[in-house]
Amino acid sequence: MKKLLYAIAILSVAALAFSSCGKKDPEENKIVKRLTMCGDKWDKYYFFYNADGTIKDVKRNPETDMEYDYERTWEFTWEGKVGTAKYTNKGKVAGNWVFTLGDNGYLTTWANEYGDTWAFSYDSDNHVTKIVRSDKNPEVVKANCVWENGDLSKWSRFKDSGAEEWKIQSFLADENIGGIFADATDKADVARWIFELGLVGKPSKHLLDQAAWEGAEKSAVHTYEKDEDGFVTKVSKVYGTDDPEIYEYAWEVVK
Q1: Could you give the CA distance from residue 162 to residue 144 in angstroms, rounded to a whole number?
Q2: pTM of whole model > 0.70?
Q3: Residue 64, Cβ neighbours under 10 Å: how many?
Q4: Per-residue model confidence as pLDDT tens digits over 195-250
């Protein structure tokens, strides 16, 4: 199951077949699950799938006392490798987001309702190595990514001055079973839920431990809560003695 098609396989273990139908694979002893929710205390995203496993709807922040059910929604229609998502903001259609997949099953480009477009490059292992704003002339590099032993060891962003600065990351021995992107919070202005759905290449093999910008006095330390199958349900990110930043996940067994 090397290709995404378009949002399941990467969320469990790449190469697990769907024939396991959520049961433990006799060789890998793994459970196949897919993501149904992720988010922090301000914004939570809910994911709904078509019968073939493609992403159908993404919905943010349910509302109970408004004329609309969710604050924001993205309704997907797929034609081959192109997904067009009707984007609705507080009950009003704001335009379309367009997701174009490459032969590797991951995004080559993503465009929002304004036509702002991001392009993605990958290495031979399908890890993202560069993200650019391809609608700019010339193109603007938003992030470079360096991978070591299957983990994202560092990634960069650019200051207004044009200077590139790097975030250095270390990892635990714990396997990243669900394929989460705990390091995708502020990378390249791409919405985190797009990473979490597995659309932007393979995730780190292990769970993120510490991350810090070069020269920073504090590192962000990550701790995790998991379900009985080892899938992460909560990430706590702490800088020094600051209050933790919490990010949560929910999963369902693939039927």
Answers
A1: 14
A2: yes
A3: 5
A4: 999 999 999 999 999 999 999 988 999 999 999 999 999 999 999 888 999 999 99
SS3 content of the chain, % helix, strand, coil (to 5): 5, 50, 45
C-alpha distances (whole Å) from 131 to each of 50, 103, 213 are 28, 18, 19
Residue 2: inside a domain, yes or no? Answer: no
Distance between CA 205 and CA 202 in Å, rounded?
8
Q: Which residues contact 244 (CB under 8 A, 6 or more apart)?
A: 236, 237, 238
Q: What is the gyration radius of the CA atoms in the chain, in angstroms? A: 18
The dihedral sign for the CA sequence 115, 136, 203, 62: negative
Decide which of 188 and 114 is more confident. 114
Amino acid at 174: D
Q: Is residue 104 part of a domain?
A: yes
Would you say residue 81 lies in a domain? yes
- Three-state secondary-structure class, residue 69: coil
Of the candidates 114, 70, 111, the one whose C-alpha atom is nearest the C-alpha of residue 92 is 70
Distance CA 200, CA 110 (A): 10
Mean pLDDT on 106-129: 97
Domain with 142 in it: 9-253
Residue 214 lies in a domain: yes
The total of structural domains in the chain comes to 1
CATH of the domain at 153: 2.40.160.190
Locus of tokens 């067009």: 84
